[in-house]
Amino acid sequence: MGTDPTTVDPAATGIGVVGLIIYLALIAFSIVVFWKTFTKAGQPGWAAIIPIYNIYVWLKLAGRPGWWLILLLIPIVNIVIALIVSMDVAKSFGKDSVFGVVGLWLFSIIGYAILAFGGAQYRGPAGLGGAPKAAY
After folding, report:
1. Could you report the average pLDDT of every consecutive run of 10 residues in the chain (136 residues)?
2. CB-based contacts of 3, cutoff 8 Å, min separation 6
3. Cα torsion at 34, 84, 121, 117 (round to 10°)?
4. Up-side HSE of residue 58: CA atoms within 13 Å toward CB?
5. How many other C-beta atoms are found inside a 10 Å radius of the C-beta of residue 35?
6. Tally of CB atoms within 10 A around 109
7. CA atoms of 124 and 62, how far apart (whole Å)
8. Rounded to whole angstroms, how far apart are CA atoms 29 and 35?
9. Domain coordinates of the chain in residue numbers?
10. Are 88 and 132 in contact (CB under 8 A)?
11. How far is residue 129's CA from residue 124's CA, in Å, rounded to a whole number?
12. Secondary structure of 71-108 as H, E, C letters
């Protein structure tokens, strides 16, 4: 008189169809945002969809060396490195460090959407030393 343990209730299997659609939409939006951000900085947009290489390009936007990719693989260290790179990317687009921490590090997809679709212009890699020059 119980339920058959071999049958699965579709409503109890996870995120469901609506959740899957939302998830795929967020992935597609993320790709578009990073593609646009990369092209705005003079990098190939397709780099946004290549794993590992997209992080290398992200480091280059910030002006950090490519070997920092290894630091991003180390637990705890990766949090600090991501914070530094986020602040440098913000400076590279003429934004301040607060935007880097709040917009690009804490709320990444929103912050990068602001860079991609807003009026921010890439001014060169900030991590190479000194603040980027303001465009007049």
Report:
1. 60 74 94 96 96 96 95 96 96 94 94 95 79 46
2. none
3. 40
4. 25
5. 19
6. 13
7. 8
8. 10
9. 10-128
10. no
11. 11
12. HCCCCCHHHHHHHHHHHHHHHHCCCCHHHHHHHHHHCH
Encoding tokens for residue 21? 């659609």
Asked whether the beta carbons of 42 and 122 are under 8 A apart, the reply is yes
Structure tokens belonging to residue 65: 């060396």
For residues 88 and 62, is the Cβ–Cβ distance under 8 A?
A: yes
Rounded Cα distance, 68 and 114, in Å: 25
H-helix or E-strand containing 66? Answer: none
Phi/psi of residue 98, each to 5°?
A: -65, -40
Give the C-alpha distances (Å, rounded to integers) separating 16 from 24, 59, 62, 96, 128.
12, 36, 39, 40, 46
Structure tokens at 32: 């578009």
User: Is the separation of the CB atoms in 99 and 111 below 8 Å?
Assistant: yes
State which amino acid sits at residue 127.
Answer: G
